[in-house]
Amino acid sequence: MSACILDNASKVEQESLAHTLALRELNKPTFDSFKECVDCGLEIPLARRQFAKGITRCVDCQEIVEIKRGKR
Ligand SMILES: [Zn+2]
């Protein structure tokens, strides 16, 4: 009986961990960063591409996009 409860507890723990990991996956882009900026076509530095996944713009163009989004 007690072994059964322990098994159950660890199963719940694993499911909650899997759920947390799944949520974390959802919140980050799944594709690799672009080699070239989608706006100006300039090569995005490797360091920037590796810093975060899903980078599609160079620093300058990203800044312009953020300004356009209303951060000015
Ligand atoms: Zn650019």
SS class: mainly alpha
Described by the principal axes of the CA atoms, the overall outline is elongated
Attached small molecules: zinc ion
Count of individual domains: 2
Number of strands: 0
Descriptive notes:
The protein is mostly helical. The chain folds into 2 domains: 1-28; 31-72, no CATH class. The protein has 3 helices and no strands. It has helices at 2-27, 46-51, 59-71. The longest helix has 26 residues, at 2-27. It starts with a helix and ends with a helix. The model has no long low-confidence stretch (mean pLDDT 82). It binds zinc ion.
What labels would you give this structure?
2 domains; 3 helices; 62% helix; binds zinc ion
Summed up, what is this model?
By secondary structure, the protein is mainly alpha-helical. It folds into 2 domains: 1-28; 31-72, no CATH class.
